[in-house]
Amino acid sequence: RKKFKCPYCSFSAMHQCILKRHMRSHTGERPYPCEICGKKFTRREHMKRHTLVRVLLLRASGGNS
């Protein structure tokens, strides 16, 4: 049974961390910034994927910043 309920919608989760992640869709919180360009993300794994792509693109283009 899912015991953590969103106060904004009908979403519920088994774990508080999942609810906290979901809540960012309502609050707009983006706590994970890219160190290269500053773009912010709601999920750490999305920031890491973005950053990896940026680094690979910079290397491919011969850039060093």
Automatic annotation (TrEMBL):
This is ZBT46 protein. It is found in: Nucleus. The lineage of its organism: Eukaryota, Metazoa, Chordata, Craniata, Vertebrata. Pfam families: zf-H2C2_2 (PF13465). The keyword Metal-binding applies. Keywords: Metal-binding, Nucleus, Repeat, Transcription, Transcription regulation, Zinc, Zinc-finger. Residues 4-31, 32-50 form the C2H2-type domain. PANTHER family: AGAP004733-PA, ZINC FINGER AND BTB DOMAIN CONTAINING 46. GO terms for molecular function: DNA-binding transcription factor activity, RNA polymerase II-specific; RNA polymerase II cis-regulatory region sequence-specific DNA binding; zinc ion binding. Its main location: nucleus.
